[in-house]
Amino acid sequence: MLTFTIGTFAIALNHLLLISALILATLVGWRVAKRGGENPESVLFTLFLLGMLSARISFVVMYWAYYRNDPLQMIDLRDGGFLAWPGVIALSLGTVLYGWRRPLLRKPLSAGVITGLVFWALTSFSLNIYEKGTRLPEITLRNANGETVQLTDYQGGPLVINLWATWCPPCRREMPVLENAQMQRPDVTFLFVNQAESMQSVSTYLATQGLNLDNVLFDASGRLGQAVGSMALPTTLFYQPDGRLINSHLGELSQASLARAMEYFETDSTSAKPTPTRKPLCPASATC
């Protein structure tokens, strides 16, 4: 399961774990402070923001080439571009500084920070192990010509699967980014799996937007989202040639966050692309 969903609300599990770690740290700090000391609640929240800010700045610096021509992208956090370890280091240094300046805060703050970090690290590691153990679902879809195709037909090379819909604003914003990646990385197969929309409406949308996508597939009942455990859109999945999931991203992708996700793939240009046994697919925006 990649997301936690209640009704129409969905949140990525890794985000939920981060919030849970903050709540747990606050509760532990409060309990320790009751035995003697200063309640660290406000300081913990400040340190949390400091860690997130440091993680974001570090990401922007590392992928500066993707931000320099559009500085406003740096403050658009919807792409999920963060580096964890710089954030942890900044949070730890902040904890030391607060503890040095405010002695009554040392024990409650240290207990809260250590508890939160240990919880986040262990649960994130467990989620990562679980996620990387899942395989490409054996699901039947339809291509832009209305033909039946097996999702597993596309195994054999690096594979990126994007679950999307035309009514989804983040899906529409990230589509040019994915289209550009499709052209720049011919060693990787990109599948654009539309969720529960008609072929005609999707074809019309792609044509009006001038998008040229090689592999548009249709999942009329949303079974793929159910199979991978993500009912939120957009969701992007990254599979190894053997069909093993190695990464996932819930929400909008920017050029920078997609570039980071693609780093999980081997850069060997000799990687074989999957070769479906069916005849080549036409782009959904074209007439064959």
From TrEMBL:
Protein's UniProt keywords contain Transmembrane helix: yes
Pfam families, alphabetized: LGT, Redoxin
Primary subcellular site in the record, as a coarse category: other
Keywords, sorted A to Z: Cytochrome c-type biogenesis, Disulfide bond, Membrane, Redox-active center, Transmembrane, Transmembrane helix
Swiss-Prot/TrEMBL GO biological process terms: cytochrome complex assembly; lipoprotein biosynthetic process
Disordered as annotated region, ranges: 268-288
Compartments (UniProt record): Cell envelope
Transmembrane segments: 6-30, 42-66, 82-100, 112-130
Organism: Pseudomonas karstica
GO MF, any single term: phosphatidylglycerol-prolipoprotein diacylglyceryl transferase activity
Protein name (Swiss-Prot/TrEMBL): Redoxin domain-containing protein
PROSITE patterns listed in its UniProt record: THIOREDOXIN_1, THIOREDOXIN_2
Thioredoxin domain boundaries: 130-267
Source domain of life: Bacteria
Record-linked InterPro entries: Lgt (IPR001640), Redoxin (IPR013740), Thioredoxin-like_sf (IPR036249), Thioredoxin_CS (IPR017937), Thioredoxin_domain (IPR013766), Thioredoxin_ResA/DsbE_sf (IPR050553)
Any one annotated GO CC term: cell envelope
